[in-house]
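Hey, quick one: can you model this chain's 3D structure?
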Amino acid sequence: MTVDTATKTASEAFTVTPLSDIMAAEVTGIDLAQPLDQATRDAIQEAFLAHQLLVFRDQKLTKDQQVAFTEQFGTLERHALTNITPGAHPLVHMVTNLGADGKPSGVVKSTRWHSDKSFREAPSMASILHAVTLPPDGGDTCFANMYRAYDALPEAERTELDTIKVVHSWPDSRENIGRKISQAEIDDAPPQAHPIARPHPETGRKALFLGMHAAYLDGVDRDAGLARIEQLEAHSTQDKFVYRHNWCQGDLLMWDNRCLLHRADPNFDAAAHPRVMHRTCLRGTPT
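Sure thing. Here's the predicted structure for all 287 residues.
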């Protein structure tokens, strides 16, 4: 595959190679366990905005090193109360199918389309997910390009959506998967209204802001609003807008929550094989 970008600095020499024409680029020749100089950091940020999803190959980071890498691009986001394991690193969320006994549980979470922390007043800017333990095959992560989904709508519909807000609700999304949350969780993450056609704060491009936390449209009948959200999500997650990532050991992914949806694909035997990832998130900006 043709190399799209070759960047050399005093500390690093690395390449950025597109993985598809939908989104995503592979980054090789860089050790993220080491601090980045300013030129390298800026080159990564530029590639991140251009490709929306970066796949850093052959990384082996401790939790502290992942936090240090993440902090070079912004402010770390705290996790939802139930995603903080007592005694664990408070800024690193374990994405895993392991049960309390340390064995594969057969359960794969986050299989519905979503944008991380979209229920916050300042939704997440980026997520960083590091592969620690992978099944022998499967366990893919899928990403939908919400820039392209918005651009593909008829002009009249884009104009209409530009005036509508969607409420992202942690309580509603938990209820939809059969869990009633505590008042402390509601107080920690109350529902938030965001533009459904959300301008990206750095590129200026508009992207549909949807996913499983999108509960209803502000000022619209609940049932009608939910039907509209579901119709737009079905449009946005067509194959022509989706990139599927087949994980390799040592992969570290960094993606833009402001213009992508993602979901885990449970296409492996989750009762037999462990799948363990370390996730950090960067705080975004209010809308």
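One thing worth noting: The first strand starts at residue 5 and ends at 8.
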